[in-house]
Structures are given as C-alpha cells and as structure tokens.
Amino acid sequence: MDKCPEDPSLFIVTGERGVGKTSLCTDLLIAARAAGWQVGGILSVPVYEDGQKTAILTEALKSGEQRRMATQAGQLTTEFRTRNWDIDGEVLAWGNSVLASATPCDLLVVDELGSLEFEHNSGWLAGLTAVDSGDYKVGVVVIRPELLEKACHRWPTAKIIII
C-alpha cells in the first residue's frame, strides 16, 4: 500500500503593526536552517531611521538577496501604493519570481500578504499560489488583522498565531 503524503501545516501569523511578526518569522528561519531544512519565500525587513520606519526591504530566503520594496508614501511615482507605502513595481515583479520558485521547500515563509493581494488582485500573487500549493512541510504567512477573515476563508484549515 502506498503511503499517503503528509498534509502540510499552515500557520497564519497576525498582529498589529510593530508587534514582532517579522521577528517571529526570522526566529523560525534560524531554527529551520539550523535543523537543515530548505527554506523558501520572502521576508519583509523594516528599515528604521531615527526610530521611524522609513522603508521595507524584501529578502529572498533561498538566496539572501535583499531589495528595497517600499518607501514612505509620496516619495515614488508608482502604480502600486498603499495608505502608507509607495511600492517599487520592479521589486514587486522580482518578489513574485522569488515566490514562484519558493516551493518545494521544508519551510515556506510569506511575509506578508496584504490588501494588494486580497483586495486588489495585485501584489505578490505568486505568494498566494505558493501557499495554495501545499508543496512544503510547514507554511507561515503573515496577514494583517483586518484581512484575517479573508485569509481564513482562503485557508480554512490554517492555524492562527496572534502576536
């Protein structure tokens, strides 16, 4: 008899801005790498100047490469904008290519999926596809609290971690 594949475990990490969602993901990545796991996905690394968040870097977890994804709103001319951030379209496309090749892996981290993906069918759509694929042992996706209901509808078996 063939062995059934294990179901991947998916965790949704949520919490207000600045509570440590990315720090939790970083700690998980360190532990996974120490255990010899293959990691895939992206991490959104905040950039602070004088105690204020001024930009967001995107880190490709397989390669470690980082690119400046977003700056405070009003600083770039871009078609991708949220309430607080101007998003670099070229880095957005690069992040999608990173996410498209993130699986298979042992630990998939997508930090984060937000209004662009869930409300505007834009942004890191390859992140949604990677999470949907289930081609990982453990998946961790960061979601803002205001989008948690939509994320839970999409991934009803996911376990929620509130920070």
Number of helices: 5
Q: Portion of residues in helices?
A: 25-40%
What shape does the CA trace take?
Answer: globular
| Rg from Cα | 16 Å
Q: Report the strand count.
A: 9
What class would the helix/strand composition place it in? alpha/beta
Question: Can you characterise this structure?
Answer:
There is one protein chain. The chain is an alpha/beta fold and 163 residues long. It is 29% helix and 36% strand. It is built from five helices and nine strands. The chain has helices at 21-34, 89-100, 115-120, 125-133, 148-154; strands at 9-14, 39-49, 52-60, 66-72, 80-81, 85-87, 105-113, 136-143, 159-162. The chain has a nine-stranded mixed beta sheet with strand order 5-6-4-3-2-7-8-1-9, sandwiched between helices. Strand 3 (52-60) and strand 4 form a beta hairpin. Helix 2 (89-100) packs parallel to helix 4 (125-133). Mean pLDDT is 90; it is low at 1-6.
